[in-house]
Q: What sequence folds into this?
């Protein structure tokens, strides 16, 4: 595509090219789409640049294509989130589920020639646990990792961890060559055993990442392209322009409202719902705002919100109204819980009166730009209707997470992810030590149910998950409004199977059109 | 002359040091929790604290500055906190991209502005009126709007060039030209009208001087009078404006790079400043300051070459 356009301009531009030739950039590359038939170039769009390309500092979710391009993980996930063999071909737990033994492939070599062994795998697991990846805490239960022999890895846990296999299929299981561990350029010159190798000369860190096919890859059937380019888009308009100009084969979307323009350009948009938007009532014990310490007040807030109207007003209807924080399809999910708190301002007022707040109260919350602007206004309006006055304090997005998670506010509007399993979701927002249980409020019922999920049989864990969800909904620590749609656009030459538990499709599921 | 150059360079070094100190402490004052910004909301508090320690953010401000400065004097400007890339690599690679836009826009500005300015000054009448009208229009329409319109018309609707991205000259000269054409035009519009006005005014002033009448009375062709004498004398003020415009274009490149998704220094400056990536911001600030100091020096030397009176001053 670029060549055709360039040819049209070439004649007219020769003089200018000569005049300016001295200042051609030494770095950078176009975001031009390559043909994406079998082989060729796959050009992906991304809405984030990775904070590091080093395995021990890598992230997942929107950062997963960068990790997957260079690194293999011990396990990998099917589109439905289930775990499959990869570098580890077999695995088993001991009876206490605190020792995981994995059998590893013996035919894998890193791109620097170093063989992949159980000892290398053990080092990678421990480095990730001790590193500064955003997901490092997911391996917090790992007490040790050792090589029994060259192809047998043993991971010892301080306590059973129902999420461990999933974590080892994501960034937590990414395997880097030990030669790159302490290299000065580790963050920008990754060395893995994965399907592609970073082309550092053509990569502009932060903007354009170019990968070429690993010629020695042990699983050549999984290499669908000769070259992979990932372009970072930071504004919705630029992303739409690139799509309309045919410069990307597939990309996740910054703004779902651009759907008609994108489909008009011949792209297909698939959607997945992985995050819920709504209120998080952090102050479960009423430390900052005594009213929130009363469950009836929290339930009143849930009754005061018209979720259907909010979905329309804040997200243009692109999502699904919900009343629970667990993902559809997980053990905990119960569709009936979505209707536990219908829009009923009278019921809200009654509950407030019962709790001793017949005239309402004032609720302090932060206001920051996370793409939920209409929801902030509508929330204040609905709560005002039942007598609750919302006072917003505007904070900069750059410091929003610090302030929100630092216990400065009793509640906030937020997007929170719905992880694959009940256990994972609980570790993010419900358990005493979780990040979004900001005041680290203990709860015996939650602790007991999580213990069952952690150590019980499969059936016991599933029953406990359902019970946990009912309890969390009843406590109204969260007032979810809707699950927001994440859009992923792909051009006519590219087939994409979305990942049920990840914001970005996994690389092996982006293929040339059949 | 050498003494003049050395004096200007020494003043430049002092300026750059002052700017670096100021930039560091301004960024420090507004720093906040960088580790949380890098790792996002779901990272644990322990990991965030570990990240901050890894970056040296648990040290006092003066100690952080001393660490950075001791590296900087040895040419080691550290690594970006948000990507891990060496600041030197990040800045030099991206500065080259931005310079290709800014120098391209400056050349385009110089050529078009001189043509328009000379035409308006010499022809007068409707030509002058038209140039004046275009100037007002150029001033009135914001550069980013021009950029968006250019993308819509020439990249999306007419499909003549790609709407986003940058191609290296070394990879494809025609691709490179294609990738910078619209950004350069978008960047140039405002500076063209500014410089054209300056050229027009200077030309009109110079054309009225006695020596021009003398040259004409000696039988020199009008072309030689205008291009050999008048334009050279009128070029001084225009050159000064062009120098100022060059610096302005560096600022304008910030928006244009965002709109065209061009990996230049402007795009980096915005993201690094918003995120609080202190080493990268300092690298960008110093690189820009060095560029401006050298540019001003070059403009002064060029002025001296054009006008002997400047050399004596």
A:
């Amino acid at each position: 595509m670029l060549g055709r356009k360039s040819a049209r301009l070439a004649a007219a531009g020769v003089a200018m090219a000569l005049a300016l030739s001295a200042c051609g950039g030494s770095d950078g590359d176009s975001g031009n789409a390559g043909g994406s038939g079998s082989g060729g170039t796959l050009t992906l769009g991304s809405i984030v640049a990775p904070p590091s390309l080093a395995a021990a500092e890598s992230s997942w979710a929107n950062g997963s294509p960068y990790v997957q391009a260079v690194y293999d993980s011990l396990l990998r996930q099917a589109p439905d989130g289930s775990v499959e063999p990869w570098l580890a071909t077999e695995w088993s737990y001991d009876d206490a589920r605190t020792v995981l033994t994995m059998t590893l492939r013996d035919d894998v070599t890193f791109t620097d020639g170093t063989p992949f062994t159980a000892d290398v795998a053990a080092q990678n697991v421990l480095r990730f646990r001790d590193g500064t990846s955003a997901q490092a805490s997911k391996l917090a239960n790992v007490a040790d990792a050792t090589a029994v022999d060259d192809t047998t890895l043993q991971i010892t846990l301080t306590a059973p961890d129902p999420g461990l296999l999933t974590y080892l299929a994501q960034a937590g299981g990414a395997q880097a060559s030990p030669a790159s561990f302490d290299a000065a350029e580790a963050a920008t010159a990754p060395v893995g055993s994965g399907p592609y190798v970073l082309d550092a000369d053509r990569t502009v860190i932060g903007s354009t990442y170019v990968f070429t096919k690993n010629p020695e890859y042990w699983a050549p059937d999984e290499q669908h392209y000769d070259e992979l380019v990932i372009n970072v888009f930071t504004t919705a308009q630029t992303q739409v322009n690139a799509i309309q100009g045919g410069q990307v084969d597939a990309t996740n979307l910054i703004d779902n409202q651009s759907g008609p323009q994108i489909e008009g350009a011949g792209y297909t948009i698939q959607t997945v719902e992985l995050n819920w938007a709504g209120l998080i009532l952090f102050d479960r014990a009423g430390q900052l705002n005594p009213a929130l310490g009363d469950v009836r007040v929290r339930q009143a807030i849930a009754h005061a919100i018209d979720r259907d109207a909010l979905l329309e007003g804040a997200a243009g209807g692109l999502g699904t109204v919900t009343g629970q924080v667990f993902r559809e399809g997980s053990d905990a999910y119960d569709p009936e819980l979505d209707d536990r708190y219908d829009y009923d301002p009278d019921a809200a007022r009654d509950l407030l009166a019962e709790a001793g707040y017949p005239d309402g109260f004032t609720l302090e919350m932060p206001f920051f730009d996370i793409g939920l602007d209409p929801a902030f206004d509508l929330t204040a309006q609905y709560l005002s209707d039942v007598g609750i006055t919302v006072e917003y304090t505007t904070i900069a997005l750059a410091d929003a997470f610090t302030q929100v998670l630092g216990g400065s506010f009793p509640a906030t509007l937020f997007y929170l992810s719905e992880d694959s399993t009940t256990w994972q979701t609980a570790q993010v927002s419900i358990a005493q030590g979780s990040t979004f249980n900001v005041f680290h409020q203990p709860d015996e019922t939650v602790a007991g149910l999580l213990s069952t999920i952690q150590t019980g049989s499969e059936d016991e864990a599933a029953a406990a998950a359902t019970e946990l969800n009912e309890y969390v909904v009843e406590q109204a620590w969260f007032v979810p409004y809707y699950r927001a749609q994440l859009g992923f656009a792909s051009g006519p030459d590219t087939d994409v199977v979305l990942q049920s538990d990840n914001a970005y499709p996994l690389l092996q599921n982006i293929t040339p059109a059949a | 002359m050498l003494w003049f150059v050395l004096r200007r360079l020494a003043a430049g070094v002092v300026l750059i040091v002052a700017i670096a100190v100021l930039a560091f402490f301004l960024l420090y004052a507004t720093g906040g929790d960088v580790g949380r910004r890098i790792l996002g909301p779901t990272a644990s508090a322990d990991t965030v604290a570990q990240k901050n320690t890894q970056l040296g953010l648990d040290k006092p401000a003066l100690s952080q500055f001393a660490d950075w400065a001791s590296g900087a004097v040895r040419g080691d400007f550290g690594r970006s906190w948000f990507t891990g890339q060496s600041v030197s690599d990040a800045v030099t690679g991206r500065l080259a991209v931005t310079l290709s836009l800014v120098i391209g826009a400056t050349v385009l500005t110089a050529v078009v502005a001189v043509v328009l300015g000379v035409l308006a000054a010499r022809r007068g009448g409707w030509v002058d009126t038209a140039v004046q009208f275009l100037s007002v229009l150029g001033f009135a329409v914001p550069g980013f709007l021009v950029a968006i319109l250019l993308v819509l018309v020439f990249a999306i609707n007419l499909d003549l060039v790609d709407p986003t991205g940058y191609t290296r000259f070394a990879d494809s000269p025609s691709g490179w030209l294609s990738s910078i054409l619209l950004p350069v035009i978008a960047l140039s519009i405002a500076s063209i009208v500014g410089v054209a006005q300056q050229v027009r005014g200077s030309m009109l002033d110079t054309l009225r001087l006695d020596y021009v009448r003398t040259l004409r009375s000696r039988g020199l062709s009008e072309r030689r009078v205008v291009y050999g004498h008048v334009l050279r004398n009128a070029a001084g003020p225009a050159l000064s404006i062009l120098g100022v415009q060059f610096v302005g274009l560096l600022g304008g490149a910030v928006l244009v790079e965002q709109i065209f998704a061009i990996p230049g220094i402007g795009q980096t400056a915005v993201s690094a400043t918003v995120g609080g990536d202190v080493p990268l911001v300092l690298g960008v600030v110093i690189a820009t300051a060095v560029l401006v100091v050298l540019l001003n020096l070059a403009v002064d030397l060029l002025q001296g070459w054009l006008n002997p009176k400047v050399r004596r001053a």
